[in-house]
Amino acid sequence: MNKKIIILNGSPHKQGNTSKLTASFRKGAEVSGNTVTEFHLDSMNINGCKGCFCGGKDFEFPCVQNDDMNKIYPIYREADVVVLASPLYYWNLSGQLRTAFDRLFAVAECNPDYSNPKKDAVLLMAAEGDEFDDVLLYYKNLMKHLDWTDLGYVLAGGVMMPNDIEGHKELEEAYKLGLSI
């Protein structure tokens, strides 16, 4: 299959439950022959979008801000699949992930009609509770508006403390989802 996959990991915990999900997904995806690049957004210097509509003038560095998004842009452009990985914070994606994702608009600004590159997507989430309805609504609407294809999602509830996810079926689900790509 040999697809290029980018994981945008919005968890502040590099060894936390969300990262355990991405590790399982990654293992499956790599077994299938795919190339996977993961970014731990919390450890990167990424500013919020300024809403200036001044991006898109430089294909290599599409945003006018000069920060660690410049490491993400080339991998994102080449990716076939974008994995959004996040803990559930206030019934939505983490701020780290939302901030980075907003900044991807600069890539769309490279197109005269502001169209986003066509991608497939996956959602991986871990949460203390199990109320994912709001974030699923957001994710499904995001897929519709971007005209992206949802390849699936794994939602692991009941995992508050690091390593709580050990032994949960969602790790195997994430592996199988990665394997299916």
Characterise the protein shown here.
The chain is α/β, with parallel strands linked by helices. It has one domain: Rossmann fold (3-Layer(aba) Sandwich), CATH 3.40.50.360. Helices cover 35% and strands 19% of the residues. The protein contains 6 helices and 5 strands; from the N terminus they run βαβαβααβαβα. Strands 2-1-3-4-5 form a 5-stranded parallel β-sheet, with helices on both faces. α1 links the parallel β1 and β2. α1 runs parallel beside α6. The longest helix is centred in the N-terminal third of the chain and has 15 residues.
Judged by helices, strands and strand pairing, the structural class is: alpha/beta
CATH architecture: 3-Layer(aba) Sandwich
Largest sheet: 5 strands, parallel
In CATH, what is the class? Answer: Alpha Beta
| E-strand count | 5
What distance separates the N and C termini?
7 Å
Query: Helix coverage percent of residues?
Result: 25-40%
TL;DR of this structure?
This protein is of the alpha/beta class and 181 residues long. 35% of the residues lie in helices and 19% in strands. The protein has helices spanning 17-31, 69-78, 95-103, 105-108, 133-146, 169-179, and strands spanning 4-9, 35-40, 81-87, 120-126, 149-156.
List key phrases describing it.
35% helix, 5-stranded parallel beta sheet, 181 residues, alpha/beta, Rossmann fold, 6 helices
Helix and strand topology:
Elements lengths: L3 E6 L7 H15 L3 E6 L28 H10 L2 E7 L7 H9 L1 H4 L11 E7 L6 H14 L2 E8 L12 H11 L2
Parallel strand pairs: 1-2, 1-3, 3-4, 4-5
Helix pairs in contact: 1-6
